[in-house]
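Example record

One chain of 297 residues, shown exactly as stored in the release files.
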Amino acid sequence: MKEVILSKDQKAAVSTLKSLEEPTRASTGNARADYTAMFTQPMKLFPYLFGLVFLLLWQFRGIHTLFSLERYQLPIPSDIITAMRENGDILLIYSLYTGVEIIGGFLIGSLLGWLAAIAASFRPQAGAGAISIMASLNAVPIVALAPIMNNWLGDGVASRMGIVSVMTMATMAVSTYKGLRSIEPSYLELMSSYAASARQLFLKLRLPKALPLIFSALKINMSTSIIGAIVGEFFIASRGLGYLLSDQIRLANMPLAWACIVIAAILGIVLYTIIQLLEKRFIPWSISNRNENEYLT
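Predicted structure tokens for this chain:
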């Protein structure tokens, strides 16, 4: 290409144009960021405002009027808080009891599912069938699983941990196996060109690629664990939030029954948030952990 020779005045004009262009680009970027923040910040407050409006409607019986409910059918929030304050000691003990069942079953079930998926990934011909059979455990209803576990493990903490383990194992196994086996062929070819061993292939490629799906399974399992532990206490138990909830419903003491529901919900939010924080700590590069503003600006 022929080089264009500019005069001294022409070079000065080009330099001036460039100096004007840079601030213009910077100001355009800042304006776009300000425009995005103007819309995203109020949207972040929307869930809190919605929750506040919902609580006010509930407290002043707007929901009762809307669904034709009486106060004994749906206690208002102030009644539930009063029940929690009057029964604080027993609610604390039963919450810890149910928390042990939730966390213990969650860890055991998730670990067993994770190990099963790893073993299956090394022998995919037989492993895929084994994972399919394990996935069928999710079809077992908890009303059938609870009496079986009570019969096998007694009426203590172990039976509810057994229920939760069975309910969480399949989800972890299926998600982890999918993550370990869903590797792009070009990555495998690259690792093969470096003569990577099966152990290196697993640690350097398969496991990191599977981590987003593993954390997704952990978040699903946490919600499932709370359901499994509380519903498991409905059948044969002498303590725990599920036991107290079913007992108080039978006695028509709905404020205390709803107090159990509220505590279970708070417990679920706290444990779910812990897993989210761990996910951001260990896989900050995952798409789900990136700031949404990155895609809006």
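Notes: The two ends are 37 Å apart (CA to CA).
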